[in-house]
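so my prof wants the structure for this chain in the tokens format not the other one, which i didnt know existed until like an hour ago. anyway here's the sequence
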Amino acid sequence: MTYTETLEAKTQAIIDERLTADYERTTAWVDNTLQRHQDSMFRKMDEGSRQAQNVGEDRLRQVEAQMDTRLADQSSMMYSYLAEHYALRSQIPTTQPVANQQLSTPASLGHLGAKLNPPAPFTGKNPGACEPFFSQLALCFAANPQHYPTGNTKILFAISVACALAKT
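here's what i got, hopefully its the right format
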């Protein structure tokens, strides 16, 4: 190997050594800088997360307070409606069936304000006649609610009409 070649080889080795050292220093500096920026970002994200969490918790408390207020309002409205309902309910007259109450029969339907025909006969043989029979009974009940104030009086009238019609 000639002197020039040796010199070139040594120069190349020194350059390679310096480049490697510069590269390692630069890589370490870049890694260090990236790590600092990453740590800074994580700190900011943590602070942001904590702030966001605090904001979220505050908002949740506000919503809970609003819901509590609405629930209290709804409860008071419900209690006032119930009180009004029971007050109105207490004003409804209750009628008790009288043991010896005279029930209307087809023959006595003439005393109604409106002239009503007695219900059509229903023997039970024709199921299609059941609906008209009940419709006519409903008309009698609607025309004379004071004579049929309870379900029992209506049932008794329907039985007496059915029995009276069955005898004829």
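also thought this was worth mentioning. Residues 106-167 form one domain.
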